[in-house]
Every structure is written in structure tokens, then in C-alpha cells.
Amino acid sequence: RSSAKLVAPLGCLVSRQKHTLPDLPYDYGALEPHINAEIMQLHHSKHHATYVNNLNVVEEKYKEAVAKGDVTTQVSLQPALKFNGGGHINHTIFWTNLSPSGGGEPKGELMEAIKRDFGSFANFKEKLTAVSVGVQGSGWGWLGYNKEQGRLQIAACANQDPLQGTTGLIPLLGIDVWEHAYYLQYKNVRPDYLKAIWNVINWENVSSRYAACKK
Q1: Tens-digit pLDDT profile for residues 99-108
Q2: Which residues are annotated as a binding site for Mn(2+)?
């Protein structure tokens, strides 16, 4: 009986080690006309899925290297772990940061913090847009929370570098500026994509993240 009781918990433990692609909280076409269905489907079911699959492979190799005490292999796997792990973390946040009923401006504590740290919502929007447009090659523009200083901060990350893991800032709002996030619709005109994405920002989600990280 005791061995039978252990089967379920151990099974759960094994399954938890594998990362899975999260479902979108809306349909692929729900963000149109701002982000079209084809982009969302490819971005979610192909790009994000690839990060998840590769992360699981890398983690398995890493686990084997740890078991063998093979530090050289552990070190060599770090870039792939950072890239695919970051890709999974970033996109998981990104999908929830967007909503068909998004747009407008935040309310409550988040809005007060934005006014305090950036002067106005318009200033904040302009700064985050500029930072995101200015990312060279591929990367992300972020609104993060600096827990030590108790203030909001804007940052850019290259490639799939995760915000918290590379800057210490807690991610609240991420804008993906990899070309796969917009090229099929906006071609090489990144500013047009950034202008459009503000219409689908899920401020309720961003506000919830802000409230959670202040606790």
C-alpha cells in the first residue's frame, strides 16, 4: 500500500519537470486588427513551442551533466538554457499582457506609480515605445519594478534575455520586438507595430503583477 501511495506524487513530480506551452487566454484572431491571427498562431504554436521543446531538452542534458559532475558541459549549456528558458518566460508573460479588451490607460495604484516615476502616462508610453523601437536586432522592451528602490523602471533586453534574471527587475509589461512578432503584418516598420500594440495592452494584468510584486 505504501508503494502505491507514492506513485501519484512521484508521477506529478516527474511531469512538473517538463515545461509545457501555455494556452492563450483568447483566440488567435482576437487581437485583430492590431495583431493578425496568422502572426499570433505562428508566434504561439511555432516560436514559443520551440522554446519550450528546446528548454526541456537542454534541462535534461543539464540534469545528466550535474549527475555526472560534468561542470564543463554544465557551463557549455548555459547559453541555450538562458535563450530557451528566457524565450519561455518572456512569452508566457507576453500573452497575458495582451487582451482583446485591452488598451486605454491603467487605473489605481499602477497609474499613480507611472505618474510618480515618469511624470505622466504619455511620457511613460513615449519612453517605453522609444526603448522598444531602439532595440538593435531582436529583443524586448520592458516595464519592470525595482524592488530595492520601490519604483518602476524601463529597460530593454537583447534576444530572449529574461528581465529579472539579467537585470533584477520584476517584469510587469513586456513588448516583443523580434521580427516574428510583427513582420507578416507590419513588415520592417517596427514603429507601426509598437503604435498598434498599445490598443491591446491588458492593464488589468499589468496592475495585478504590480500589486503582487509589492507584497
Answers
A1: 999 999 999 9
A2: 43, 91, 176, 180
For residue 11, the cross-strand partners are: none
Q: Which fold has domain 37-97?
A: Helix Hairpins (1.10.287)
Spatial distance between the Cα atoms of 37 and 185, rounded to a whole number of angstroms: 10
Binding site: residue ranges? Answer: 43, 91, 176, 180
Give residue-wise pLDDT tens across range 171-182. 999 999 999 999
Q: Kindly report the CATH number that applies to the domain delimited by 108-214.
A: 3.55.40.20
Q: Which amino acid is at 206?
A: V
Equal CATH topology for 37-97 and 108-214: no
Q: Among candidates 149, 157, 166, which has minimal Cα distance to 213?
A: 149
Domain ranges for the chain: 37-97, 108-214
pLDDT, tens digit (0-9, with 9 covering 90-100), for 113-170: 999 999 999 999 999 999 999 999 999 999 999 999 999 999 999 999 999 999 999 9
